[in-house]
Amino acid sequence: MPSLPDMTTPNLTALASQALADSGHVAVPAPDAGQPEFVEFLQRLGDNCLILGHRVSEWCGHAPALEEDIALANQALDLIGQCQLWLGLAGEVEGRGRDADALAYLRDAGAFRNLLLVELPNGDFGVTLMRQFLFDAFHIELLRALKASADSRVADIAAKAEKEVAYHLERSADLVIRLGDGSDESRRRMQAALTKLWSYTGEMFVDDAVDQAMSDAGIAPLPSSLKAAWDKTVAAVLDEATLAAPAEAWQHGVRNPGGKKGVHTEHLGYILAEMQFLQRAYPGARW
Amino acid sequence: MYAQLVKSEGSKSREDMTPEEIAFQDRIDRNEKIEPKEWMPEGYRKTLIRQIGQHAHSEIVGQLPEGNWITRAPTLERKAILLAKVQDEAGHGLYLYCAAETLGVSRDELLEKLHSGNMKYSSIFNYPTLTWADMGAVGWLVDGAAIMNQVPLQRTSYGPYSRAMIRICKEESFHQRQGYDIMMKMCAGTPEQKAMAQDALNRFWYPALMMFGPSDKDSVHSAQSMAWKIKMNTNDELRQKFVDQTVPQAEYLGLTIPDPDLKWNEEKGGYDFSEPDWTEFFAVIAGNGPCNAERLGARVKAWEDGAWFRDGLMAHAAKADERARAARHAAE
């Protein structure tokens, strides 16, 4: 029996029940089977953490100061941990026998649901920090709202993640301020990072049918409802950092489908080629 | 061993010592710890800076061979474990640079010497990590060899170094276990995985033996360091201990140590084994290992690319100070 369902096997359901039978556990039918929107929503949460965690982990050993190396590794660890919880729950709700690893390692880019922002390349350290700040300011509002989710599993994960993300935001906001209001060079780089990334912030607040279904079920807030709080945080930090967001910018993934719909930048394919290499090259092996 | 070929002063006989030096040596002989502000011979201070600095450099350069596989780790759990492990290495670097700072040398000065090639790091990190099994082999063998050296250094005479080693050893033993756990998983896996594990052992065995430094007969710097309890065991003693410990672990995995002359010697109660190729060792130390240019290049690039970041933070701190001063003035 392979350790992970093989996506090339046409009959996944049969493989999953086979795996369950072989595992010696009592097979309990998943109560949530048939909730595709919920699965989709959980994958969005998990994929944001997975892909951003991956990007941040790319810095390991290459950061501009030893303290930054340690801090970034912490952040990547938090995000990978959160991804395990969200994708684990996604697999459970889906009820097809896929666990977090199967979802992370055996889906192709079109099945990933992360925001475009988190898959963008690290760039210089300024781009990495600014990307983190813009996402953290959104992430924290989302998690705060999810703590009141009608689904207690979601509320529990959100409560745990919120503590970690509050620290991520404290750190990224602090560095954005210090580097924005730092030297001429650091200010120039932070402004360039902000200008470059701004076009990827709109996607965070787009509501679609999945979001509407989650909101109707009391599981999650509408993304658009988080925008006012995000605007406030971002405006305050940018002001102190002496940086200015572009007045008008095209927003990717707003009018056109973006990462939430599985339409990604070219970058995601390379992330997955790297991340999934061993699982793809040695199908079914246990590590 | 993360510090190899550390240059020390020639040892002095008691008759040649000044009264201060005699008193210092007596403290060491009574196993007293030497603390930062206390008097110490200049040679002791310099040798410690070289050794602790080299050790610190080894920790941060040592992030790179394993960092090489973080983005390709085969499961989320393995990715998290490896990331945490490499993060620990950065933390070890930090403790050690701090320990060196107590001897009057700044982290920036030490890094400048690393980047300019005037200070070394352990030869082991100049070997490539080619497969996932190398993550297992590095944890098992490289961290295993490091522990062999660092456990006795917990009792070293310099207080801050000794305390750093106590913290580091706790983490290193987890590192070795995680490496061995990867090896166990691979040896119990598919034939391809087992072949990968054997290949990793083949490539890392002799470089791991080299970590302890040259054979005692060629090790010119040991006597004074041992008298000062900066070095607690000879290179050959530690190497022998490492081989004796590791061979049964390889047997348990069903792997073969790549040494046809490896044989249990009942009389000495240890294994006889082949020496590593010392010509290769000196070539790697001199900069000609397979990854010397990449490893040092990556560290130099990280430092240079990060200059604007560090300068920006300093500029902000200066502005904040200036504003605080102006606010105080206005209030007066």
Automatic annotation (TrEMBL), chain A:
SUPFAM superfamilies, per database record: Ferritin-like (SSF47240)
Source organism, top-level taxon: Bacteria
InterPro entries in UniProt: Aromatic_CoA_ox/epox, Ferritin-like, Ferritin-like_SF, PaaA_PaaC, PaaC
Pfam families linked: PaaA_PaaC (PF05138)
Gene3D superfamilies: 1.20.1260.10
Official protein name in the record: Phenylacetic acid degradation protein
From TrEMBL, chain B:
Any Pfam family matching the protein: PaaA_PaaC
Protein name: Phenylacetate-CoA oxygenase subunit PaaA
NCBIfam families named in the record: PA_CoA_Oxy1
Recorded name of the encoding gene: paaA
